[in-house]
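Lecture 7 notes: from sequence to structure.
We start with the chain below.
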Amino acid sequence: AASKWLSRQSRDNPSLSGLADACIDSFEFLPWDTTVPGLSPAVHLTSEDLASFLSSDWLNDEMINAGVDWILQRAGPGSRSRILNCLFIQILRNARSQSASYSPQKFSPIDKAIHAGAVDLVWFPLLVSGNHWTLLKIDLVQKTIAYSDSLRLTRPLEELALVQWWLKSLLRSSDDFDIVEPDFPSPRQLDSHSCGIIVLSILASILLELSPLWSPERASTERIKWFLRLSSMFED
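Predicted structure tokens for the same chain:
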């Protein structure tokens, strides 16, 4: 299926032939019944999910988390930015259902980093409506939350309230963060499946200064590049 998708993309856009050839070359050394090595213990990207980058499939949570981990590894430990695992929202839901304030038995790495004053910006890939990836930028210095949505839908009030609850409990504050418009480029998707790639592209462009940013014309190019980035973990 991946080979057929690559053939179609190359036929429709001959400039992709070099990237497509690189993917096909990688097929020779990629094991197809395993998980991608070199990612954090919290990330389990199967080779089947890796191949799904070479398609028009929607990105699942492991694909998002793998892309996030790839970015974080290259941003380095000295970065004052963090990106949350996209499943962190479920941790917050569970915590909220059990307590009026956020008081886990064991604080997460991001909780500890915020307590220690080691982070200024927290980026949060947020799944809304069960099928659409959006992005939060939490500015701990300015006390703001920016919401980026490639479909320009209404803000997810329940999830934003949950994040506000977490931050207020963690920072021992009674004040909500201000909700603001994004101060970073936020591409608009024209299809039903590019939201996840857009989130990864925004994060890579800001934290790693990778360019150009996703655009509808570059949709296939970005999917191929993410496949190549993550498949290279087998070579490292």
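Points to note: The beta strands are 81-83, 121-128, 132-139, 144-148, 178-180. The CA atoms of residues 50 and 227 lie 6 Å apart.
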